[in-house]
Amino acid sequence: MGWKHLGVAFERTGRVLNVTCTPLGRKYAAPKLLNHVTAPDVIIWSAVLASACLPGVLPPMVLLQKTGGVVQAYTGSGVLWRDGSFRNDIPSHELRASLNVQFTVVSQVNPHVTLFFYDRDGAIGQPPARRLSSVWRGGFVLSALEHFLKLDIRKWLRLLRDLDLVPLLFGQDWSYVWLQKFDGSVTVRPKATVGEYLRLLRDPTRWAGCWIGW
After folding, report:
1. Is the CB of residue 56 less than 8 Å from the CB of residue 170?
2. Were 183 and a residue from 13, 151, 187, 196 both cysteine, which residue would form a disulfide, CB within 3.0 to 4.6 Å?
3. CA pair distance 174, 75, nearest whole angstrom
């Protein structure tokens, strides 16, 4: 990949690469959608690394851009950048504004999302448990209770955020991690097991890599 930037990648392949990053140290700063339109000079590997900087796991880093053959710090809205999913995991509005994207297919694998995700439309071969005519389908009560509890948690978390009472962890307000939109026009998500959560921060083994297409 070298020092290729987003603009060059689009010119050579015709494909659009989008990376979302959030500036550090600015509580209300909006995330930045990086692509060949909004930030054509940003170096690809720099954007990818910055988007993976999770507080407590990887420190934030400086975004780099290449202008006139000279590599320098990106002159955007922040000096240090981190994972963009803190504010905008699915940048639907930004994609619509810069690329006129109308529909999104989301592969949602964030562990904190899949655990609390409620799929109101059901999955393939697993339709939602709803009332059909005068018959209550099996599992409706548990499904409704699950949805109620998740909405109640989000309600209280939103109240704490609006009152500025959410404690900071690693200098970050984590309320946005649960209060933003995580689905798209079509959302695909895995069924995670407890064992997979315990191995969350481990490097994948050669055996596991075979299953995910490495």
Report:
1. yes
2. 187
3. 26
Cα angle at 119 between 118 and 122, to 5 degrees?
A: 145
Annotated domain spans of the chain:
1-102, 106-199
The pLDDT assigned to 120 comes to 61
Q: How far is 137 from 6, CA to CA, in rounded Å?
A: 50
Q: Which two tokens stand for residue 13?
A: 């392949």
Alpha-carbon distance of 189 to 205, in angstroms, equals: 22
DSSP string, 130-169: -EETTEEPTTHHHHHHHHHHHHHHHHHHHHHHHTT-PPPB
Euclidean distance between CA atoms 186 and 205, whole angstroms = 30
How many whole angstroms separate alpha carbon 20 and alpha carbon 38?
11
Spatial separation of the C-alpha atoms in residues 175 and 192, rounded to whole Å: 23
**pLDDT per residue as tens digits for the range 40-99:** 999 999 999 988 887 777 888 888 998 888 888 887 655 788 887 777 778 888 888 888
Model pTM above 0.85: no
50 three-state secondary structure:
helix
Q: How far is CA 43 from CA 12, 76, 77, 135, 177, in A?
A: 15, 13, 16, 57, 26
Helix ranges (DSSP H) in 4-134: 6-13, 44-51, 85-88, 92-99, 111-114
